[in-house]
Each structure stands twice: as structure tokens, then as C-alpha cells.
Amino acid sequence: MPHYRAEGDIPRKRHTVHRVTGDVVFEELIGADGFSGASSLLYHRCSPSAVVGIDAIDADPAAFQPNHPVRPLHLRTGMLDTDDSVDCVTGRRVLLGNADIELAHVRGSGRSALYRNVIGDELIYVQSGSATLETSFGSLAVGTGDYVLVPMSAVHRWAVTTPSIELLVISGSRHITIPSRYLSSEGQLLEGAPFSERDQRGPVFGPPAGNVEGEGVDVLVRTRHGMSRHVHATHPFDVIGWDGCLYPWALNIGDFEPVVGRIHQPPSVHQTFAGNGFVVCSFVPRLLDFDPSAVKVPYHHANVDTDEVLFYSAGDFVSRAGSGIGVGSISVHPAGFVHGPQPGSFERSIEADRTGETAVMIDVFSPLGITAQGLQVADPEYAWSWSRQP
Ligand SMILES: [Fe+2]
Predict the structure, then answer these.
(1) Predicted model pTM
(2) Separation CA 79–CA 56 (nearest Å)
(3) Which of 69, 257, 270, 368 has the highest CB neighbour number within 10 Å of its CB?
(4) Strand pairing of 114-117 and 217-223?
(5) Which of 222, 252, 282 is the last residue before a domain boundary?
(6) pLDDT at position 172, please?
């Protein structure tokens, strides 16, 4: 949970009359877990409930096929039939998912529609490019290597500031948080946590780019049943101030401080976020295990209760060299399959003292399904990659 912030024009006491140029403003609570979790209060010039139209739009929920017979997968996002002219919301290609999580990829451009996801928080990893996340809380500039955490129900849109941007979208079914073991009982990031409050970037409050006046403003609302369109009488960015602990924020993966050891450390030391039914870990450039006899590539392991997803973001992936894995790849090593380093990688790692890889791992605690789009870019030879000679 981010820390308390107060921006713009807010009344001294909450839930009291507040006027701007004589007009009473409208207070909106955006809060998690009923009234028991983190929350913020936003002050609108017009009612945030004033809608003048509601309809369904043509966007079916993702259909997942079971991974049967169970096998390791390699999805090549570079082979997705992408069109850079799509936006970062409606252009997403869902690849993997279950009731707890969906993983999607998009290469988008321009400014997206206004959007809110009421299924859960979204954690978006920026693989390349830059954008401004425009929200009711202000604008958040994001770029390559950023994790962007957008709370459930927060109205926002993506304004891409480079020719295109490439995103890995992790959509949760509830909230995505900082692991509790990194936090004091009061919520401060502890000494020894792999990042600190200085690394968390919140939105800059001010007039958002674009028109905030006018009538008939569309907001796409994502639910488990698909996408709805709410036509608001006035723009939801008509906020004059807000305060609280619930707002979008960003963390760059380069600000994650890796833990290294004399012998190999388990992936849990790289945990960055916790979701409902999954965790997210960051693998960043770091020194390798430094005992003279240490095996510097991961040992074979079976995830007895986890489907392990790895998105390969940058650098060389020594442990999987020769498998076809490269930047933009997504591997899925499911429960029931023992996986380990590529044959020959141990020998190649003996003289190495550091790794330059950057990768995002998502460990999912229930079996993942795969969409037809995911299957289209799956490497049919990947399952045999460990049995090939180096
Ligand atoms: Fe693994």
C-alpha cells in the first residue's frame, strides 16, 4: 500500500461541505475491501454517478483451453499478429489465465479510451516505450522497465508518448500488494526490503492532458462478463483534489535491489508483488553465486503446486540459451513438469560472475489455461528443448 498523499483542493475535514466558486463539490470514496482497506477521497466538480447511457460492447471474455496434455510452453510475443495502431486497452491480446489472473500482451499507440477494471488491480510491465498514465489522481509518466500498479476501479487512460509501447498486462482478481514481510506493522517498507518509498512514484496532480469538459464521455468498464460502456454526463477527470492511500503508482524494475548468496538463492528472494493466487518476482542484473563450487544456474525443480511463468525482458538468458528463449519470450513451466537449465548451460556459466538478465516471473497457484492466440505463437518444439544436445 502506498503512503498517504494529499493533492489539490480538499476540505479540512472529510465528509463536510466543500465549495468551489460557490458550487458544492461531490466527494467520492474509492476504497478496498468494503470500508476496511486502503482508500482515497476524490472531490469532483460534478457527480461521478451521472451516467446518461449504458451498453455492452463487443469484447468477449477470454476463453482458456486447459494445458492438456500438460506440457511446458514457450509463447513468442514477437510473433503475435500485432497492429501498432491499437490502443493499450482494447488492443490487448490475452494469452494465459485462470480465475485469479489474466496475462495479456499489447503493442499500442496513441491515447486509449477511458477505462476502469472492476475485476481487480492491474499490474502492467512496460517492456519498451513511454506513456503517460492519465488518471483521476493526476498523471504518471512511465517508461521502459516500469511496473505500473493501477488500482481496481480507478478511471484512467494510456497516452503513449513514443511511436508505440509494449506492455505485459497482469490483471488480478482482487488486489495486488507489496509482500507483507517487507512492511512494518505501520506499513513502512523495512530496511532490507528490496525497494523503498523513494522508488515508488505516484501521479502528479494537475489538469490532465485533453478535454475534461463536455458531455457524453465514454468509460469502458471491464467486468467478468466482458466490457461495458458507461456514458458519463461529465468527464470523470473533473477532480479538484484528493487524498488517501489508494492511487496508481510505479516502480522501475531497475530499482529492485537483488539478493545474492554464496550458493543459489530461491526465486522467492526476488518477490516484488503479491496477488490473489499468484506472486510476481523480478530478476535483475546481479552477481552470481560466489562460492567457488557453486552451481550458478538454477537446479532442476518441480513446481508441485505452481504454474511458473517467466517473461524475458532484456539481456542474455544463460540458463536457457539454445532453447529458443529470447527477449519477448514467455515460458510456462507448469505443475507436474520438472524443469531446469538448458543442457550445456552449467559448463558455460562456470567462468561467469554476473548475469545481465532482466525478467518478470509470475508464479500462479492454480493451473493456467491458454487462449487460441497464445497457442498460435507457441513453439511446438519447446517441450523437447531439454533433450536436445547443446
Ligand atoms: Fe523455475
Answers:
(1) 0.95
(2) 31
(3) 368
(4) parallel
(5) 252
(6) 98
* Regions of the chain with pLDDT less than 50: none
Distance 363 CA to ligand 1 centre (A): 9
DSSP 171-183: EESS--B--GGGB
* 219: containing domain: 51-64+82-236+245-252
CA of 301 to the centre of ligand 1 (A): 6
* Rounded distance between C-alpha atoms, residue 374 and residue 353, angstroms: 36
Q: Specify the DSSP element, H or E, that contains 346.
A: helix 345-349
How remote is the CA of residue 189 from the centroid of ligand 1, in Å?
A: 27
Instruction: Kindly give the distance from the C-alpha atom of residue 278 to the centroid of ligand 1, in angstroms, as a whole number.
Output: 14
Cell of 317: 538468458
- Residue 203, classed as helix, strand or coil, is coil
The C-alpha cell that represents 78 in the structure block: 514477437
Rg (CA), the chain: 22
What's the CA-to-centroid distance between 339 and ligand 1, angstroms? 6
281 and 212 inside one domain: no
Sign of CA dihedral 258, 328, 341, 74: positive
In the reported structure, the alpha carbon of residue 252 is separated from the centroid of ligand 1 by a whole-number distance in angstroms of 23
- Ligand 1 centroid to 383 CA: how many Å? 14
Task: Say how many Å lie between the CA of residue 174 and the centre of ligand 1.
Answer: 25
Q: Say if CB 155 and CB 248 are below 8 A apart.
A: no
